[in-house]
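Take a look at this chain, tokens included, and explain the fold to me:
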Amino acid sequence: MFVYVGVFLLVAVFFSHTSEKGVNPQGICTDGYFQCTNDTFCVPQNQNCDGKVDCPEGSDEQNCDDQHDDDYWDHLYRKRPAAEHDDWNGNNCSLSYFGKCTCRKSDILCDYKNYEEAPDDLPEENINILDFTGNNFKNITRDSLKNIPDSVEKLILVHCNVIEIQPYAFFNLSNTNYLHLDNNHLKFIPQDVFAVNNRLKRLSLMYNDISKIHPRAFENLKQLHELDLRRNKLAKIDGRILDPLRNLAILYLQNNQITSVSVDSFPQMKLKHLSLMENKIVQMDIASFSHLQELKQLFLSNNLLPVLENGTFSNLTSLEALTLNNNYIKTIELGVFEDIVTLESLRLEGNQFKNLDKKVFEPLTNLRTIYFDRFEMCSFAQHVRNCQPKGDGISNQEHMLANPILRTSVWVMGAIGCTGNVVVLLGRHFAPTNNFVHSLYLRNLALSDLLMGVYLFIIAAQDQHYRGVYLSYQYIWRHSFVCKLCGFLSTLSCESSVLILSLVTWDRLVSVTQPLARRQLSRKFAVATLAALWASAVAVAAMPVGGVATSYFGDEFYGGNGVCLSLHIHDPYAMGWQYSAAMFVLVNTMALIFISYAYLRMIDEIRASGVACRSTRQTEDRDKVAQRFGVIVFTDCLCWVPIVLVKLVALSGIPIPQDLYAWLAIFVLPINSALNPVLYTLTTTVFKKQMEKLMDSCWRKKKRDQHNTASESAFSLSFGMFPKGGSSRRIFSYRRTHSSSMTVSKNSWKRSTAV
């Protein structure tokens, strides 16, 4: 009854604490918490837009879609122009056309007909799409397009091997709205290409080799709404080219060779969407975009920007989306975002800054979604409702170990690792053995594996310590001495275990394959070998925490994640990645190959030696040894192969699921530490016999002590007191003689059969 009452009180306290969490005395949500609609309940930042309803009316999962992010991806991948009417089934033609091309309602599809100029049998009616994809218009002149009716709305000259466009080439197409010249070999756009009174709204010149555009090339495009110049070789932005395009709303300049943006790059325009992605921009002058007051989306991803200076985005009073991901930004000045307070979406992942002042994002009061590399960076912008990512598979903004199963498992794995290896150390210390060297190897292996259990216990304790408030302390934890100690212990355990396992395997291999030729190793040699292995493992584990190599390892080699592990799966090319790859890929792979070969060789040797054996008992023993060796190889593969494969996949650039890192750290990596005591000691026949002898000796000593105590008590009670003088010595002498004779007679059968 009292247990149930206690549980009820704990639950009540928990929910009362949860309901008040994030609320100040005035009933207002504190920083990092957001109030539910029509309710006083406050939900932490990481629980907004996470797919789970936390508010009573579900408002924490409403308005989570980032339309600007959708636009970001949509402008990267676009349909081919003629695919606009792919839903028109059949070839029902609504035009009077009987030529070689395909007529689909109001579309004429002349793709891949090897035309060098437009055919003369095109209908005069209103053609929606005229598609010449895959033909051979090498040199476009006014004559080569003279047979195209002026009523064509969309003209497609994609993959037509166009090398040159002559002046006046499109003067006959004054009513065309869309012109696509993609995927050709154009290098220069001359002037006087388009008629004065043209109605062109979209001009696409992407995937060409354009490196130069005449300053007056676009002067007649007064109605142009969208200009696509992506995937060309433009080295700079000439404001004179863009000056006539006063109605231009969308401009794609991505994937060129632009290195800088100046105040003169963009004249006064009504531009709303500007993409400068995938260039080589290293510098943006102050007020570079000051003439673009109506700009709503600015894409600057995948450039080489090292710093964001104050005033860079001045006068962008309408900006709603800004992408700065995948640059080299190390510094963001404090007031750089003060000019774009209307911003709603900001991408900053893939940069080099690790720490920022929270005041940097304070002016962005309308910011609804922000994207970082790591969830820990969400602490820089706790006033933003939707911060991505929510976690890294190991930790999230609330807990160091996000998954409840992981929180339990880390205690279990730590307990298994520590208990098994402590038993091995104590057992091999007190139990006698005939092979001191082999026992010494296994004691050192147990000590190595014990370090992994200690590491897991420290992680479990720190997870308990930071439960519910991890985001506020994650930076302090990841850069703390304890975290570095955890990284040191895990690395030391892994590397020393690998080396000692290889040494044990070599010792067994020589014993099995050369039982007569091999001399017994001396204790000094064995101790010296182990000392060298431990020294190597300590050096490998300690090097990243030493101050000498900070420029190579950085300050987060062990603190790159909440469990302080140097596996580096999610960021495979972080500082010191070669070192991490050498430890977890090269060393582990070589050790696994050697151990697998050695045990297979031993199994083969044992089977070969037992071919002529007729004894059923010896055959069974041989099979048991082979099975044990097979289990040893299997468990080694179970631990090392997944880690090696995942590390190689990550290094190849393939994204790894976030949750996988946590399972590798908590389950896969400690497998050997938990199973080595069982495989190498606890289940061996010799160890079990030694422990039986030790337990039997302890049991007999206990029974003997009890028997002696009972005899003394009976003697005292019989006489009421101890004898005086020499009589006591006679009595004790009699008891010793009597006890010893009983023992001899009792165990005499064992001595006779022991031989």
